[in-house]
Amino acid sequence: MKKGIELKINGDNYEVLISPNNTLLEVLRDKLGLMGTKQGCDLGACGACTVLINGEAYLSCIMLAMDAVGKEIMTIEGIEEDGLLHPLQTAFVEKGGLQCGFCTPGMILTAKTILDEEEHPTEDTIKKKMSGNLCRCTGYKKIVEAVMSVSEQTGEGA
Ligand code: FES
Ligand code: FES
After folding, report:
1. What single DSSP character describes residue 62?
2. I need a surface site. Which of 14, 19, 50, 154 has the fewest CB within 10 A?
3. Which residues of 97-114 are buried (b: 16+ CB within 10 A; e: fewer)?
4. Which of 42, 51, 103, 110 to mutate to test the pocket of ligand 1 (most atoms within 8 A of CB)?
5. In this predicted model, what pLDDT tens digit does every residue of 20-43 receive, in sequence order?
6. How many Å is the Cα radius of gyration of the chain?
7. What is the reported pLDDT for 81?
């Protein structure tokens, strides 16, 4: 049986008709057309579907959309600031932290949670906290360099 719910995504409210077993990833991509959140393994193993819920990273492929009702959801579409790329997005481009780009939205959102929590994380902390985000192009070195470069931009916030 379909059910109408309201989701708050990137500051906007969306009314959407879902099945109770729809994942948040299905609703974002298939019902709302927010294609920035990627479907990789669909099993909770790759991090491609990472979104932020109340500022924390969640895997939207293993989360029911209904469980996101009443919470602040952020997808990669919502990370820009006043029409400009977020510093992490700029850093990924400038440092070559992406190849095919499939893992990039999840990587950037996870990186945001790290920098929100700690302004200057160590390289080891970044590696550990991003270990759930897999890159099939294996560009990990440049990804970590990109996150480090933002953490070194003191006072600019991430
Ligand atoms: S698609 Fe969700 S963890 Fe891989
Ligand atoms: S850039 Fe291709 S999967 Fe990471």
Report:
1. G
2. 154
3. bbeeebbbbbbbbbbbbb
4. 42
5. 999 999 999 999 999 999 999 999
6. 15
7. 85
CB of 63 sitting under 6 A from ligand 1: no
pLDDT in tens, 70-84: 999 999 999 998 899
List helix spans (H) across the chain: 24-26, 87-94, 104-117, 123-129, 140-151
Name the helix (H) or strand (E) containing 17: strand 12-18
Strands 3-9 and 72-74: parallel
CA 26 – CA 48 distance, rounded (Å):
13
Ligand 1 proximity of 106 Cβ (cutoff 6 Å): no
Residue with the smallest CA separation from ligand 1 atom 3 is: 44
Q: What is the DSSP secondary-structure string of 83-105?
A: TB--HHHHHHHHTT--SS-SSHH
Mean pLDDT, to the nearest integer, of 4-12? 98
CB-based pocket (< 6 A), ligand 2: 98-104, 135-137, 139
Kindly indicate the confidence band of residue 155, based on its pLDDT and cuts at 50, 70 and 90: low
